[in-house]
Every structure is written in C-alpha cells, then in structure tokens.
C-alpha cells in the first residue's frame, strides 16, 4: 500500500476522533413549528398592511413567496415522514437517495427503477451485418432503506435488483451502505460501502436526474459507474464549495481490459485490499442551478499481482472536470475525464494480453450535452426536454510499445433525444444514437426508456 494512503488514513482517523467529541444538540421540532407559525402570521399581517397601503406588485409577490416557503416547511414538520418526497438532492446523492436526510427520526424508504428497449440497426458502418439483438430489459429496480437515529447519526443504503431475475442474467447487489456522523455543515464523517464522488452520474444516477435513456459511455468505461468501494472519509460545505473525500480499497487491475476500467471495480465483495486509493471531489455550488468542479482518484491497482521482476503496482490516476448548469429550462452539461496507468507492459504480460488486446496506458473521454424544457414557461409540473449529446471516447488513447491500438476503441457517439416528465418523479425517454469508430464497425440504434423515483 502506498505511503500517501497510510498518511491520509492516520489524518482521517484523527479528524474522525475529534469530530466525534462535538457536542450533540437534538433538534426541537415543536419549537421550530411554533417559530414558523409566528413568522407566517407576521408575514400575513405585513401582506395585509402592504395591500392596504397600495404597495407595488413586486413587493407583494416577494412577501407571498416567503409565506409559501415557510408554509411548505411548516407542513413538512407537521406531517413528518409522510411529507418527504424524492425531489431534492442532499450531499451529492440523488433525490430519492437523499430522503433519509430530510425526514424525521426513524425509517426512510425510497427507490427508483428503469426499463430500457434498444432497437439496433441491422448493418454496421461498413455494411456488414450487425450481430446485436434488439432487447427489452427491466434494467434496475432499486430500494433505498435508511434510518435516522437522531440529528447526527444516519444510516443509508441502496439495494439493487438488476435485470429483473437472478434466474436469468439478473443479480442482487448492495450499491451503497454507510453510516454518516453529521457534525457540522463544514465537516462530517462517512464510513461503509461508498459511491465514489466522481463525474456527474456515479452519485446522481437516478433516471429522472440525467437526460437520455442510457448513461454516457465516458461515465461507464473510464469512470466506471455505478462505482462503489468500501472505505471512509469526510464531506461538507464550506462557503460556496462542497467537497467529499474518501480512502477506499483500490481497483483490481487483473480485470482491466482494452474497453476500459469497468471490470476492475470490486464492489465491496471480499475486495482485495493490498492497495488502497484516495478519491476526492470539489464543486462550486454558490450559484443556484450551477455545479462546476473537479474530482480525482489516485492509487495502485496491482493488488499483489506480480511477475519475475516483483510486484506490479499499476499506479492508476483518474482526473475529471465537469459543469452542470440548469437555468430557466436550459440544461447544459459537459465533462472531460482522463485516466493514466503505469506498468501496463508488465500488466499485459502477466494477463497474457497481446496485440490490440492491450490495456490502455492513457484513456480519455469527453461529452457535451444541451437540452431545453419547452414547457418551462407553462404552469404545471410537466417537462418536455429535447436534447443533443456529443461524446468522444478512447479507451486505448495510448498503449505501450510493442502493442497495437484497436481502432474500435476510438469512438464518437451522437445522441438526439427527448425526455418527458408528466410529473417530476416519472420520466419517459426516447433517443436516437449514432456510434461510429475508427474500425467502421459502429452502428445506429433507437432507445426507449421509462423511469421512476419515489
């Protein structure tokens, strides 16, 4: 295990110990309700006085807006857990995954699901037959279980049922399961099976959050979403910035491939822990609707893999930058990710990989996406968002001397689609995708998706 990780673990342990001695002050629900009632009554009296005095429409509208905000909070406090809905992201998680933080003490249940139909063109770019089979798959049925012990300690988990049946090609997995100690806004502690805080999809992967029936390829092959590992770390908000940083078990390079890093995920299942890694994220969130930041992953992935020369470290670095901006119906998103690996020649030889089967020494992926909700100026909850996404991915951007690049791993994907939400918690997706690559073996496909959160 590399020295930097050891040092970080020691620092993390000290910080966690200090934080655990922060005094706990339980929330007084009844006092908050009483205070809100007084504020609402004062605002109503101010509204009556302003109306009688002939105040301008702008001033009256602001008072009414404040009354509505306080009234909604008051209703949530009075109703308790029944008022919690999947409609707000907390600590970087999706709206449904965040429900436990917004509820009162006790159990919280949420979830989401996705169904996807894919129809493939019968021929490839070069005119040869396409062997891909059209498919209708219930991709995921997710259940979130959380428990709020008090205002400080929170348990949260995600259980995934994938591809509908374990009797066929499906599986059941724990996507995350952790305990939070919520000490203060700027510094909190988290430990367990964690989602790595990278990219725009890995933490926020609920179907109502991202446009398109399928996730961007960059965020499945270079940032291998959904990516979770066991570990611990800290997170919080400092001024206009939000951060999350963890130490986790490293990837397993013995399952890397020419198509990317996805096979190297250990998913918390008897994970090899000869090598650990550090991951962190910093976002600017000071402007409503805007998230702009960077994230990184640094650690060895050899996990005791060796050859005649000794241990193969396979130092793995992934760095990405991202922007997500939502404003008056406009939905803009961009991301660039880059991965670099050391010891790839030795790794290829240890795994008996030759020629164009080489693992990439460098991998890159970029996408830019733009959408606009054409119903944004109309009343009601409905949203209709046409969008376009351009993406370029190269999982063998560079390979070691003596190996070859498979031209099929250098691809460009153009997606044209439309997402319709009759209500914020339900989405229907339709898109056309054109994938091309340097081997002329790309193809076109139509995707139709349905998703929900609760």
Quickly name the level 1 CATH class of the domain at 92-114 and 133-377 and 390-405. Answer: Mainly Beta
Q: How many E-type strands?
A: 18
What is the terminal-to-terminal distance?
41 Å
Sheet with the most strands, sense and barrel status: 16 strands, antiparallel, barrel
Q: State the shape.
A: globular
Structure classification: alpha+beta
Q: What order do the strands of the largest sheet run in, or round the barrel if closed?
A: 1-2-3-4-5-6-7-8-9-12-13-14-15-16-17-18
Instruction: Estimate what percentage of residues fall within beta strands.
Output: 35-45%
Order of helices and strands: HHHHEEEEEHEEEEEEEEHEEEEE
What does this structure look like?
The protein is of the alpha+beta class and 454 residues long. The protein has a domain at 92-114 and 133-377 and 390-405: Porin. 17% of the residues lie in helices and 43% in strands. It has six helices and 18 strands. It has helices spanning 3-19, 29-52, 57-79, 99-102, 218-221, 344-350; strands at 106-120, 135-148, 153-162, 171-184, 187-195, 228-238, 241-249, 276-284, 290-300, 306-307, 310-311, 315-327, 330-341, 362-372, 383-398, 410-423, 426-437, 443-453. The strands form two sheets. The chain has a 16-stranded antiparallel β-barrel with strand order 1-2-3-4-5-6-7-8-9-12-13-14-15-16-17-18. A hairpin with an 8-residue loop joins strand 3 and strand 4 (171-184). Helix 2 packs antiparallel against helix 3 (57-79). Residues 1-27 and 79-83 have low confidence and may be disordered.
């Amino acid at each position: 295990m590399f020295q930097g990780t050891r040092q970080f673990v020691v620092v993390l342990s000290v910080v966690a110990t200090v934080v655990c001695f922060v005094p706990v002050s339980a929330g007084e629900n009844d006092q908050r309700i009483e205070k809100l009632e007084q504020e609402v009554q004062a605002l109503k009296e101010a509204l009556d006085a302003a109306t009688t005095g002939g105040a301008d429409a702008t001033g009256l509208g602001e008072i009414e807006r404040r009354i509505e905000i306080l009234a909604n909070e008051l209703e949530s406090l009075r109703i308790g857990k029944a008022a919690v809905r999947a409609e707000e992201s907390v600590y970087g998680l999706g709206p449904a995954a965040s429900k436990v933080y917004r509820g009162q003490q006790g159990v919280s249940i949420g979830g989401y699901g996705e169904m996807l139909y894919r129809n493939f063109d019968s021929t490839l770019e070069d005119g040869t037959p396409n062997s891909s089979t059209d498919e209708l798959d219930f991709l995921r049925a997710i259940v979130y279980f959380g428990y709020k012990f008090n205002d400080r300690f929170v348990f949260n988990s995600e259980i995934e049922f994938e591809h509908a049946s374990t009797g066929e090609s499906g599986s059941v997995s724990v996507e995350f399961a952790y305990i939070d100690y919520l000490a203060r806004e700027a510094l909190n502690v988290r430990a367990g099976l964690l989602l790595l805080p990278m990219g725009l999809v890995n933490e926020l992967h609920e179907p109502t959050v991202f446009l398109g029936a399928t996730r961007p390829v960059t965020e499945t092959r270079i940032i291998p979403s959904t990516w979770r590992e066991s570990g611990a770390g800290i997170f919080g908000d400092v001024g206009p910035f939000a951060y999350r940083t963890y130490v986790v078990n490293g990837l397993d390079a013995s399952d890397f491939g020419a198509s990317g890093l996805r096979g190297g995920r250990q998913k918390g299942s008897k994970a090899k822990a000869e090598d650990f890694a550090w991951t962190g994220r910093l976002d600017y969130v000071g402007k409503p609707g805007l998230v702009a930041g960077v994230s990184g992953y640094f650690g060895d992935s050899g996990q005791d893999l060796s050859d005649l020369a000794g241990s193969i470290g396979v130092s793995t670095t992934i760095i990405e930058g991202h922007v997500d901006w939502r404003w008056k119906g406009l939905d803009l998103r961009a991301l660039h990710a880059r991965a670099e690996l050391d010891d790839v020649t030795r790794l290829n030889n240890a795994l008996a990989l030759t020629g164009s089967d080489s693992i990439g020494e460098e991998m890159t992926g970029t996408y830019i996406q733009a959408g606009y909700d054409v119903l944004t100026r109309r009343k009601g909850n409905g949203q209709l968002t046409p969008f376009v996404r351009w993406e370029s991915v190269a999982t063998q951007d560079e390979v070691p001397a003596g190996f070859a690049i498979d031209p099929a791993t250098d691809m460009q994907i153009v997606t044209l689609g439309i997402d319709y939400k009759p209500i914020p918690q339900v989405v229907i997706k339709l898109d056309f995708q054109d994938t091309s690559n340097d081997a002329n073996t790309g193809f076109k496909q139509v995707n139709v998706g349905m998703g929900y959160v609760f």
